[in-house]
Amino acid sequence: MKLVIAVLGLMTCFVAHANLEGAADNLSRCVTTYAESQVKTTKSASSISDEAFDKCGAELSEYHDSIGPDKAQWSGLSAQQKEAISKIRDQTTLKVRESLSSQIVTFITESRKRS
Fold first, then answer.
1. What is the pTM of this model?
2. Which of 7, 10, 84, 95 places its Cα 20 to 30 Å from the Cα of 112?
3. Distance between CA atoms of 24 and 61, rounded to whole angstroms?
């Protein structure tokens, strides 16, 4: 019985990881595609980065919600647990956004130098 519980727990972790990884890939692909489409414009690199996240709001939200428990698990959590997880989700999403934004700015800047 303990083995069954351990296997189920492990499977849940793999599914959660796959969901997070898929959401991260979707977000990265979305902002990268938008940034690539804007390289030849006269917009500033930081404006392009901001616009990319505006255009990819659904993907950013999907990424945010994929961190931690899924919707079924969420309903069983206490208010305190939900608050703690929400804080982690917000902080993690902000750091990912900052990192991707920095990469977009670098990409735009370097691409324009080569043109």
1. 0.80
2. 95
3. 11
